Amino acid sequence: MTAIDRDSRLFISHKEGPRDSDNSEALFMDIEKKRDSDSPLPIFVSDDWDSFEEGLRRVYSITEIPAYCGRGRPPKPRLVPHPDLKYAQVIKKKRKNRVVETLGRVVYGDEDEVRRALGVDENGVISTSYVERLNLTIRNSLARFIRKGMNFSKDQYVHRRVMDFYQGWYNFCVRVQPCEVSNILGP
After folding, report:
1. Whole-prediction pTM value?
2. Is 182 part of any domain?
3. Total domain count for the chain?
């Protein structure tokens, strides 16, 4: 799993392993450690994986204790998403292994506010193209992602260190050409 800043295209964080709630929580905890506490919460966009929603809920939630009515057991505390949390999902509908429709769904936050912040009009599509492009660049740049062979990562520790090195190289050595949002979305 990888995280990229949409505006600067900095490769912020990565987490190796299965795409489950624990790893997504670790990814978001790493992002939170790197974020300035005075800055607003970032807007998160991902594909349709419930583990991302669960990881965000674990990291960016407030514990709320419901009011006790005086009868029965007192209610247990529950996690409520932070009021400033904004999260959208890109849902791809497929038929016969082909994408036939792409939908954007705002999970947390006001839909109009999230779309405005992402630069998407009401008919536009929320997109994960930047992070998908980064993932393709990683796969094409590192031989260990191509196939199991001589360069295959046999050790998780070494694999993480290679990704750390690649993250530094990508952020400080690769010149990324900024592009206009209107060029991506079309006329």
Report:
1. 0.77
2. no
3. 1
